[in-house]
Each structure stands twice: as structure tokens, then as C-alpha cells.
Amino acid sequence: MSGDHQDPRDQSEPMLRVTSLSTVFPSPAGTVAAVDGVSFSLSAGQTLGIVGESGSGKSLTLYSIMGLQPDTARVEGSILFEGRELLGLRDRDLNRLRGQRIALVFQDPMTALNPYLTIERQLSEVLQYHRGVSRSEARAGALEALRRVHIPEPERQLDRYPHQLSGGMRQRVVIAMAMIGGPALLLADEPTTALDVTIQAEILDLLAEQRDGGTAILLVTHDLGVVARLCDRVIVMYAGRVLEEGDTGQVFGRPLHPYTEALLAAVPRLDEDAPPAGRAIEGQPPDPLALPDGCAFWPRCSRVMPACRRDRPDLVVRSDGRAVACHAVAPDPLASEDRP
Amino acid sequence: MISRADAMISIVIKRVAGAIPTLFAIVTLTFLMMRLTPGGPFDRGHAVSPEVQANLMRAYHLDEPLTAQYLRYLKDLAHGDFGPSFTNKDFTVTQLIRQGFPVSLQLGLSAMALALVIGLALGTYGALHRNRPSDHAVVAFSLVGTIVPNFVMAPLLTLLFGVTLRWLPAGGWGDGHQLSYKILPVIALALPRISSIARLSRTSMIEALQMPYIRTARAKGLPRRLILLRHASRAAILPVVSYLGPATAGIITGSIIIEQVFSIPGIGRYFVDAAINRDYTLVSGVVVFYGTIIVIFNLIVDILYGVLDPRVGKR
Amino acid sequence: MAGGYWRRVGANRTAVAGLAVLTAIVLLALAGPWISQHAIDDIFWDRINAPPDVAAGFYFGTDVNGRDLFARTLEGARVSLMVGVSASLISLVIGVAWGATAGYLGGRVDALMMRLVDILYSLPFVFFVILLTIYAGRSLATIFVTIGAVIWLDMARIVRGQTLTLKHREFVEAARSLGASDPRILLRHIIPNLWGPVIISMLLVIPDAILTESFLSFLGLGVQEPHTSWGVLIGDGAQNMMEAPWSLLFPGGFLAATLLAFNFAGDGLRDALDHRS
Q: CA-CA distance, B294 to C221, in Å (whole number)?
């Protein structure tokens, strides 16, 4: 706690602090918040998972951090990265961070790579543009980046085109491309969804290696298994809002929110004390243009109460560091013993 | 794993093999039309004695069996010999084509270059300013330019710039080195192609900019200019490259009109005069000549496409 | 549903505008002889290249020979539209027969037939039209036959595609299992169900035919005096535009408006039909 800094908060300030992030689209019936007041923070070497069904706003949260939301969207709130506000930054300044300090791994390696350019070109342009290195230095850098993601015969892959590589190889290239600038923060959007199960495991190991190297990872996925393997903390999103947040072990071991419970129950499990078959959550995710009053989840909730249909529950932080937004969850038993 | 060079060679071989039937179709169709139509070239409008008729038939080998005539025709063509002109007795068809071709070639290539530069610029501009007034202007321009035919547009341009405003000569080719004579015909010939290329490249650029790999490039922190030039341009230009084949045919057809409207001494003028005067050999010669050029150009375009798109010809 | 189809066409404003302009032009062309104040070949020596004069009945002025341009433009409309429709009917017959046969038989026959279409497609067909008109003479009939004979390729492609999808529908399978012969299935079950896409492609082929006819006539290789067409009038007008620009502007404007209207109507109907299937 005692340091050279005058303000002790400086030292505890995380690498990324997202506060009340909202991504809003115009629509004929007023604006629609596809991401609605999301807050979280992430420190160096940490891994945070965001889970939710499709349409929950989890990917858009990721893109909004990088300023890659669709042109029609407006982003509000605050995104502090290494103490710097990203919202409102000009493209030119944002480009100094993109690919260098913050990098992105996309869901589908098939389409994330440019089919008309060689692997070398797509890797080395990051170094050439940001660092101004020569063509041959950039090639050496690209080669090194491919080695770091354990691509066999990296020299040969450099001159090939994406369509000549397998899906798993392509995803390694995408990760190599993200890591080549040595980013402090890696954002990953469903990095394993488009891959075979065996290759999924390899890619997860590769991401774990990057984390162990000190890179913070923000991972978006609908696959709870991926989160369980890789993430220290997890956020559960529904209809653009955070319903639950906490340490992965706690959240998955003892979920507080009925939605988290339902998500976990829907996962097919191999261990024996669990139900024999996973069951899907009943009902459909809500239409963002016609969200119900109160809690967005109540029409599908097993523990719905009158208040749920009326008031939207706030995300309440509990003494154990967990947070949940639900009327049905008992008030924090330790609240009285703790500071607010 | 086949290397890229090998793949390219096999593409070239395949395309050349594909072009041969088309060439044969052109030559054969032309030959059949020339020889199988009832009457034959000397019947109409000429009153000649049977002996003269027979002599003419012999002189043009029309008395031989059809297959022999066909083989002779192929052999002559292979030597670049299109035979004598029926109406210009002093010239062979080859000489007339050789005379007109440089002018037509200059006109056509200039129009094609102009169409590519302006068309791509307009299309890209429209795509980058999508749904704004300037984009609507590009779309409206290209719609009108594609639909209003050459033979309406060319006289209108002459009327406006040559006659009313008197900025440019209304016709002629000058001595062949004066730029002022070339501006109007080249623009008039290029206009429909500018419109088509603008339309095509606008659509393909809009599509290209929506590809996920463009987002990858943005995530890499590359500037807009580089994303456009390196990442989006390739996918955006491929449909335009495919269009170059039909565009060549369009420019050749259009040049007939333009040469007529502006009195330019190119192949197109010989062709129209020959058609009006029923100069069978000259008309057929020009059809085969232009057909061959179109086939060759299509071949080049196919190969160019293979060079630009690494996925073409993959195993 | 047909009702839904026409409602969607109605919702497409450009298609409606296109169809309205087309209807107006067709009606004008048909009414030409009655609404023109002068005959198409009356020569007014005192009105050579005279500008439009509504009071005297010369709504579009006169041409270099002192003939009423209004009457001649509408006569040109009649001829151009007739050539367009006749040529596309010929292309319809060839294209439907060719495309339906290729699509229905499939396999090698299909590959061969469509390869031929591809080859013909890459040829500069206007040249062959010119070549044909030289040999066959320049009557109106040869013009639309030759144009029809070269523009059936689009029709054949569209019809083939549609036939491929129809081929495996229940009613065709049913007819086959009942022992109907191939020609009978083609004529009774396939071709009658092709009308939708065929009508739309007619809207694309007719302007093509009109354009080709105008191209030939402009060069003096198409419709001959005493007949006239938009192409002939535009050709004459272009020669004469310094003295009488209206002799170029009216027929040129009519041709451009017709082509635009066909384009809008065709696109609109195609969108509406795509929506349906």
C-alpha cells in the first residue's frame, strides 16, 4: 500500500475499467440499448469471461471497447484503459492502441483472415505499420509470431494463403496476428466456437499460455466449459445487462441468479451426480425492441415474484465480492458485518 | 501441394483450351453464313453473264465442295489472310483492317482506360459515402449512363460541347495527334462503361467493406487508407475484372457508332460502309477479327482473375 | 399468392412508375394515327426543320424533309415496340424450348446444350445480326427474326434454371409415375409453370431487342424507308442536329424513357417475384 504514489488508488487501478458502458442503436421506436450499463474491470494477467446466449450483447461489449461497433451505434459510459479514456478518442489515436496494446481474436478464422493476402503479409503489416520496421525484419517477426503459436513449418506457412490452411491452423494464425504487437489486453470473441473439439482444447491451451505470459484476456463465449477452464472471473449477461458476476469457481459452483442456474443446468455434464442430460432453457431470449418491464428474464424465470414484473433489479455487490441482480436472491447474509 | 506457379500454368492451359471452341464457333458461323445463304454473293443487284459468273465462282473458289472451301478458309485465316474485298477491288480485307485498326485501337484503349479510372473512382467514392446525397448522385449517373444508348448520348454530347458551347471539335480525328479531336469520342465511348464499372465497383466495395476481415484489419490498428487499398480493394475489383470481357465487346460495338457519329477513320467505319454495300468478305473479315480480339481479351481477363484471386485453381 | 405479388409490385414505387410510363408510351404509339394532325409522309415544303408549333399541330416540329416529327416519332414507337415484342417472342420460343429441354433432360445433354449457350454468349452477337441482315436482306421480318435468333440466350438460361427446380416437384414426379412421356411432361407440366420468370425476362429481353434494332437502324442497316423507327429517326436527327436539335431530342428521349421504364418495371417485378419464392 505504501508507494511513491500520492494517491493509493493509482496502484490498485486495474488495466481496464469499464463503467456503465451502453451501446445504443437508433430504431423507429426510439433508441435500443443492446449493451445497457455494463461495468467491470480487469487487471494484468487476469482472465475475465463474459457468457450469455446470443443476442445478450456480450460480443458487442467487446467490440465497443475497441471502437469497432457498427457505424450506427453510439457508445456511452466510460472505458479506462491503462488510465486513459478510450471513448471519444479519435480513430488515429485509437489506432495506436489497436493491434499494439489491445488486440482482438475473432470467432471465425475462416472469414477473419483476408483470403487475398499471404499469411506473411497479414502478420507483418502490423509490425511494418506500427513500428516502421523493414520488410525483412517484419518477416522475421512474423515467423517468430507463428512459432509462438506452435505452427508447424512456420517458414512454409508464411507464403501460403488462408484457404490453404486448416481451421485450427487459421485460428492459430489469428492469435499470432493478435499477439504480434505484444498487447497488454487480448479480447477474444468466441475463439473456439468454429473449431473441432480437439482443436478447441489446443486453442484454449494457447490462450492460457498468453495469459501466463502476463496478457490480460477478456473472453466472450457461450461455452461455459471454456470459461471454467480459462477464466478467473465471469460475468453473466442477459439482454444487454449483467445479471451476475463473481469468481468462476463460486459462480459455477453455487450460482446465485436463476438464469445462471439455468445456463449451468443446460450444460451436458459428464460427472455422475449431475442430471443425466442437459436441458435447454425454456423460452426465447427477449426481443431487444420489446423488453418486458421489470427484470428482462422474468418471463423465463422459475423463481419469478411480483416485484420482478415491476422493478428492474440492480446489480448488488455482496461482501464476498460477488454481485447479482435478482429480487429472488436473499440479501447478503454478511452485509451487516461488512462495509458497504 | 501444387505451387502457385504450377497452378497458374494449368489455369492458362485450361483457359486457352476453353477459348479454342469459341474461336472455332466464330469462324465456322461466319463461314456458314457466307456460303450457305441462298443466292450467294453475286446474285443480288448484279446482272452478270453465266460465263462471268462462273469465272467469279472459280476465282473465289466457290465452285469447290464446301469442306474444301472451309479448309481453305481456315488455312487463309491462319496466315492472316481475310481474302480480297468485294467492293474495294484494290484492297484486301487484311489491308483495310490494318489501316483502320490503329485508330480504333487507340480510341478503344483510351476509352477503356478512362472507364476504369473514372468508374473505379466513382464507385469507391459512392461506397464510402453510402446513402448520402453524393452517393445517390453516383447511382443516378450510372443508371442513366448504362441505359441511355451510345447513339443517343454521342450526338447529344456533340450537340452540347461541339455545337452549342463550341469547346471541342464536333467531329473528325484531326491528323491523329490532336488531343482536342479525341476528347469527345473517347468520353462518349467510355460513358456506358464508366457507368457500369461505377455501379459494379460501388456494390462490390460496399460488400468488401462488410467482410469480417476488414474488421480484423481495423482491429490491427491499420489506417483507413491502407485498409481500403490493401484489404478491401482486391475483393472489390474482382467483379470489375470479370466485367472487362463484356466491356471489351461493348467498346468494340460502341466504337462502330462512335466512329460513325464523329467520322473517325477506324475499322468501324469500314465495317458500316461494307455492310451497307454488302461487301461480304470485308464484313466477315471484321467479324472474325473482332471476334478473335474479344476471345483473346477474355482469355487475358480470365488469367488476370486467376492472378488476383489466389483461390482460383486451387486443388 | 397472386394478390400478395401485385401488392408488393404496388409497394415498389419505381416499378409502378416504370409500368405507368410503358403503358403511356404503348397507348401513344397505338393512338398515333388518330392523334397526329399530319400523316407520317406528308411533306411541308414551307416547314423544313421547323421548330415545334403546337397551334399548327407540329408538336415536335418537323424534320429535314418537312415531315411532322410527332407523327413520325409515334410511328417509330410502333415499329420499335413491334420489333421488340416480336423479336422477344421468337427468343421466347427458342429459349423456352432450349432451356426447358436442357434443364429437364439434365446430365450430358444439359452440359452440352448450355456449353453451346456459353460459347454463343461470348460472341459479339451484334456483328452476327449485321451479317445475317446482309444475307437475308433488310425487311422488317428479317430484322426481328435475326434479333430474336440471337437474344434467346438469356431466356434459355433462366428457363433452364427454373426447369431444374420444377423437375423434382411433386406434380412432376406424380405425372412421371403415372407413365407420362418426357415431351408430355415438358409441355403439360413444366412449361406452363414457367410463366413467372419468363414474363420478367421478357421485360429484360424486349428492351434488348429494341436497343439492337435501334442500333442497326441508326447505322442505316436496319429498318428502311418508307418505314421508320426510333433508331432511324435518331440517326437522321444526329445528322441534322445543328439545324434542328428537336429531331434528335424527341426520338432519343422516347427511346431513353422506354429503356428506363422497362428497366424499372423489370427490376420491380423481379424483386416482387423473388420475394414470393
A: 23
CATH code at position C30: 1.10.3720.10
Range of the domain at C130: 2-276
Tell me the average pLDDT across B162-190: 82
Interface touch B220/A68, C-beta < 8 Å:
no
Q: List all chains that touch chain A, counting a touch as 3 or more CB pairs closer than 8 Å.
A: B
CA angle B135, B136, B139 (to 5 degrees): 90
* Chain B contact set for C233 (CB, 8 A): none
Q: Which residues of C touch B261 (CB under 8 A)?
A: 238
- φ, ψ of residue C41 in degrees (nearest 5): -115, 10
Q: Closest residue of C to B253, CA-based? A: C126
CA distance B310 to chain A (A): 6
Name residue A43's amino acid. S
Specify the pairing of strand A47-51 against strand A233-238: parallel
Q: Hey, is A237 helix, strand or coil?
A: strand
CA distances (Å), origin A285, targets A57, A240, A288, A293, A297:
12, 11, 9, 14, 8
Residues of C with CB under 8 A from a CB of B: 119-120, 122-124, 126-128, 130-136, 211, 214-215, 218-221, 231, 234-235, 237-238, 241-242, 245, 248, 252, 255-256, 259-260, 263
Residue C128 neighbours by CB under 8 Å, 6+ apart: B29, B33, B287, C150
Q: What is the pLDDT at residue A267?
A: 75
Average pLDDT over residues A120-134: 90
According to DSSP, the β-strands at A216-221 and A316-317 are unpaired
Chains that touch C (3 or more CB pairs under 8 A): B
Count other Cβ atoms within 10 Å, centred on residue B177.
8
Q: Which residue of A has its CA nearest to B213?
A: A112
Domain that holds residue B143: 103-279
Q: Answer whether residue B93 is part of any domain.
A: no
Task: Give A173-227 pLDDT, tens digit per residue.
Answer: 998 998 898 899 999 998 888 778 888 888 888 889 888 888 999 999 988 888 9
Q: Is the pLDDT of residue A4 over 60?
A: no
Minimal CA–CA distance to C69: which of C42, C106, C89, C99? C42
* C-beta atoms of C214 and B280 within 8 A: no
| pTM of the predicted structure, to 2 decimals | 0.82
User: Does residue B190 belong to any structural domain of this protein?
Assistant: yes
For the cut 80, the answer to whether the pLDDT of residue A137 exceeds it is: yes
3-class DSSP state of B3? coil
DSSP state letters, C171-198: HHHHHHHTT--HHHHIIIIIGGGGHHHH
Kindly report, residue by residue over C116-148, the tens digit of the pLDDT.
887 777 777 778 788 777 777 777 788 878 888
CA separation for the pair B12, A25 (Å, rounded): 50
Neighbours of C210 (CB within 10 A): 29
B21 contacts: CB under 8 Å, gap ≥ 6? C119
Say whether C127 and B291 touch across the interface (CB within 8 A). Answer: yes
Q: How many domains would you assign to chain B?
A: 1
Interface predicted TM-score (ipTM) of this complex, two decimals:
0.83
Yes or no, beta carbons of A114 and B216 under 8 Å apart:
yes
Whole-number Å distance between alpha carbons of C198 and C191: 10
A65 and chain B in contact, CB less than 8 A: no
Among B residues 289-308, those touching chain C with beta carbons less than 8 Å apart: 290-291, 294-295, 298
Report the range of poorest mean pLDDT among A232-236, B18-22, B187-191, C249-253.
Answer: B18-22
Which of B212, B234, B314 comes nearest A112 by C-beta? B212
Sheet holding A16-27, edge to edge: A30-42, A16-27, A74-81, A84-85
Is residue B9 a part of any domain in this protein?
no
Asked if B1's CB is within 8 angstroms of A98's CB, the reply is no
- Which are the contacts of A20, defined by CB distance < 8 A and separation ≥ 6? A37, A38, A39, A76, A77, A78
B284 is a domain residue: no
